[in-house]
Amino acid sequence: MSKVWESANKPKGARNLDDEIRLMAGSMLTYSTLMSANEGTETQAMKIVARRQREKLMGCLMLPLAFVYFVLFCTSIMLHEDISDVYMIESELRGQMDDIFGEVEASVQGHAAAQVEL
């Protein structure tokens, strides 16, 4: 760390590439040391900030999924009971059922009339 200290004490204009690399490595080592230690307010604050950022990111990632669920819900509500389609289907079925049961009704009425005559 003494080399890092020496590089940090040099004026900016007198630093060469080796000094800049030493300073970057020193800052990375210092950050790594702070993050690995479980003590200190900076580490706790950094963990809190990282946790909040992760929560915000997850919220942003869940937004499109929530929008898709909303659209699917609205679509299912609209298709659940489409009155015009239900009317068309049921009227066709009623027409067919009237034809089928009309013949049965006519034969029952004919049979009832035949029994009355007896």
Oligomer: single chain
| Fraction in helix | over 70%
Number of helices: 4
Q: Could you tell me the number of beta strands? A: 0
Shape: rod-shaped
Distance between the termini: 124 Å
Mean pLDDT across residues: 78
Indicate the structural class. mainly alpha
Transmembrane segments: 57-79
Keywords: Membrane, Transmembrane, Transmembrane helix
Organism: Symbiodinium natans
Protein name: Pkd2 protein
Any overview of this molecule?
- The protein has 118 residues and is mostly helical.
- The protein has a domain at 81-118.
- The chain is built from 4 helices and no strands.
- The chain has helices at residues 2-9, 17-36, 41-80, 83-117.
- Helix 1 (2-9) packs across helix 2 (17-36).
- The chain is rod-shaped and about 130 Å long.
- The N and C termini lie far apart (124 Å).
- The model has no long low-confidence stretch (mean pLDDT 78).
- This is Pkd2 protein.
- It comes from Symbiodinium natans.
In short:
The chain has 118 residues and is mostly helical. The chain has helices at 2-9, 17-36, 41-80, 83-117. Helices cover 87% and strands 0% of the residues.
